[in-house]
TrEMBL record:
Keywords: Cell inner membrane, Cell membrane, Membrane, Signal, Transport. This is Aliphatic sulfonate ABC transporter substrate-binding protein. CDD domains: PBP2_NrtA_CpmA_like. One of its GO terms (molecular function) is ATPase-coupled transmembrane transporter activity. It comes from Actinacidiphila oryziradicis. GO terms for cellular component: periplasmic space; plasma membrane. NCBIfam families: SsuA_fam. InterPro entries: ABC_SsuA_sub-bd (IPR010067), NrtA/CpmA_ABC-bd_dom (IPR044527).
């Protein structure tokens, strides 16, 4: 694949969420529950379509994702040409985002057709549009989130009480998970201010390692590779979030599509999902090469590859999967409701796994459930 990459600034923006979905207190932090921030730069790229390849109903498909290890499927699949192989003469246009709200905004505006994104912005985008903007059409990754702490000040889980722990953003996926864990310990924290038995310090992932080094935080509940960056600075993993979930699996990245594009170009969506399924199988069969591919793409997009002591443990904690793990999406939404960040949303209709299961069936693979949310 050849590509021309152009840096595009996509800053975090405050977005007021639909009143029916959120409590009034969240007007102060509307980008929160719908955002999973990353530390990379944004960019765009265009792939070269296969000359003489099969012709689909669209000449171009616009794909969005993050420069983040939890988005390994697009990072690796685009580099290896596994998506383009299925798309034939349909050209791929790539857009790389720093935050969920910007990607949802791009989907709504038609700037992208299909995207890899975290569960919180997917829920927010669906609810905010009254169920009309997007569908979740496949899974992509599970795991990769850890509670990492200063071993000098925190030696056990009970020592977290009274300490300063960072999360990426008010109401984002990791923030909700940490607030839920705090509540399960019987401790009290005001979800909006982060003040209480634990001080929840909302800190962008890109500055969290420096905050840890300076001593302004005692630890962080963060996704990879930020967790492994902290470990490289002397922190230790106190808890892997996967241990809190059935079968140690929970959704961290899904594939979404514009409903308009899904209706107009189901053959293109099928080709992208075939590429996604093939990529996940390739990653599983070639983990070391896939890791190198992902790191090479991160270096291209962000200007710097991850060192071995960061990417090696980070990569091991993330599992690529075609399964959207739909039941865990509902649970994550329930956790946000429990924390007081979200009025119980109606997620009925958020999934359409028809094409995914068609692809999986044709490949002789197990098909997946939408947990009653189709």
């Amino acid at each position: 694949m050849t590509a021309d990459r152009t840096a595009v600034s996509r800053p975090h923006r405050h977005r007021v969420l639909v009143a029916a979905a959120l409590l009034p207190l969240l007007a102060l932090a509307a980008c929160g529950y719908g955002s999973d921030s990353t530390s990379s730069k944004s960019g765009t790229a265009a792939s070269t379509a296969s000359a003489g390849g099969k012709k689909l109903s669209a000449s171009e498909v616009k794909i969005g994702y993050f420069a983040n290890l939890t988005h390994a499927t697009p990072l690796v699949g685009l580099k290896e040409g596994l998506f383009q192989k299925e798309l034939g003469s349909t050209k791929i246009k790539q857009s790389v985002f720093n935050a969920g709200p910007a990607e949802i905004e791009a989907l709504n505006a038609g700037s992208i057709d299909i995207g890899w994104i975290g569960p919180s912005p997917a829920i927010n985008g669906y609810v905010k549009s009254g169920g009309k903007s997007l569908k979740i059409i496949a899974g992509s990754a599970s795991g990769g989130v850890k509670l990492v702490v200063n071993p000098k000040t925190i030696k056990s889980l009970k020592d977290v009480k009274g300490k300063k722990i960072a999360t990426p953003q008010l109401g984002n996926t990791q923030d909700v998970a940490f607030l839920n864990w705090i509540a399960d310990q019987g401790w009290k924290v005001d979800a909006t201010t982060g003040k209480g038995d634990v001080s929840v310090v909302r800190t962008d992932n890109k500055v969290t390692p420096d905050a840890y080094k300076s001593g302004s935080i005692d630890g962080a509940w963060v996704p990879e590779p930020t967790a492994s960056k902290l470990v490289a600075e002397g922190a230790k993993v106190l808890l892997d979030e996967s241990t809190l979930w059935p079968n140690k699996k929970f959704v961290i990245t899904n594939v979404i599509v514009s409903q308009k594009f899904l209706t107009a170009h189901p053959d293109v969506v099928q080709a992208v999902l075939q590429g996604s399924v093939n990529t996940n199988a390739w990653i599983t069969a070639n983990p070391d090469k896939a890791k190198a591919d992902a790191n090479a793409e991160l270096a291209t997009l962000s200007g710097k590859a991850l060192p071995a002591d960061v990417i090696d443990p980070a990569w091991q904690s993330i599992t690529v999967t075609d399964d959207p793990l739909a039941a865990t999406l509902q649970t994550e939404a329930d956790h946000a409701v429990k924390a007081g960040l979200l009025t119980k949303p109606n997620l009925k209709g958020i999934y359409d796994l028809t094409i995914l299961n068609k692809v999986l069936k044709a490949d002789g693979k197990a098909q997946f459930s939408d947990a009653g949310l189709s």
